[in-house]
Amino acid sequence: MLERFQTGLASKDQANPHSADRHVGRQIATVRVQSDVSQAQLARAIGISFQQLQKYENARNRVSASMLYEIGRALDVPVSRFFDGLPGNGEATALLLPIDERLEFIASAEGRRVIEGLMRLPPRVRNRMSSLISALGEEIDPEQCRSGHRSVNSPVIATTPALSL
Questions:
Q1: Which of 2, 6, 29, 32 could be cross-linked to 107 through a Cys-Cys bond (beta carbons 3.0 to 4.6 Å apart)?
Q2: What is the structure's pLDDT at 65?
Q3: pLDDT grade, residue 141 (50/70/90)?
Q4: What is the pLDDT of residues 30-45, one digit of tens each?
Q5: Widest distance between CA atoms in the chain
Q6: Nearest 5 degrees, angle CA 41-CA 85-CA 53?
Q7: Residue 8 and residue 50: Cα distance in Å, rounded?
Q8: CB–CB of 29/107 below 8 Å?
Q9: Are 8 and 17 in contact (CB under 8 A)?
């Protein structure tokens, strides 16, 4: 154990945040989304910009203890909630449910862009877009989506039917 303190920590790689920072950021986003609070609302409540909150949620910036306390107060959860499921946190992580992929997507930059774009549409158009996305999801093999490639037998859609708005 003493050896660990003599050699020091591995060099910090700024491009790759620490796994604990990523976990805490995802937990902040998850609790925020579950609480039906926007980034702008939470940021205002704790006195920071929504861009700074995005950096916390994406682990681009580390969250200080005092800021984590303020976020917990604003979302009405104990600070320990942000560490739930963190490996090595002294708890049985196998009993916890994995973070829902949908919440991770919603909290991601891509998810925010999609939602912001959809919210700018009139409700009727938004509903049609939702139907289109659902239909595409049923037609496309999930493995194709993950790999980014279509299989040899997959048809290429030459034209897209017009949506009647």
A1: 29
A2: 94
A3: low
A4: 899 888 899 999 999 9
A5: 70
A6: 25
A7: 35
A8: yes
A9: no
| CA triple 84-34-50, angle to 5 deg | 95
Residue 91 to residue 88: CA distance in whole angstroms: 7
Label residue 106 exposed, middle or buried (CB < 10 Å: 0-12, 13-18, 19+).
middle
CB within 8 Å of 29: residues ≥ 6 apart: 57, 103, 104, 106, 107
Percentage of residues of the chain with pLDDT beyond 90: 30
What is d(CA 25, CA 82) in angstroms, rounded to the nearest whole number? 8
Dihedrals phi, psi of 12, to nearest 5 degrees: -70, 130
DSSP string covering 53-83: HHHHHTTSSPPPHHHHHHHHHHHT--GGGGG
Dist CA 32 CA 75 (whole Å): 7
Sign of CA dihedral 29, 119, 109, 48: negative
pLDDT at 51 over 90: yes
- Our measurement of the distance from residue 128's CA atom to the centroid of its chain's CA atoms, rounded to an integer in Å, reads 25
- Tens-digit pLDDT profile for residues 84-95: 888 776 554 444
Token pair for residue 59? 């682990």
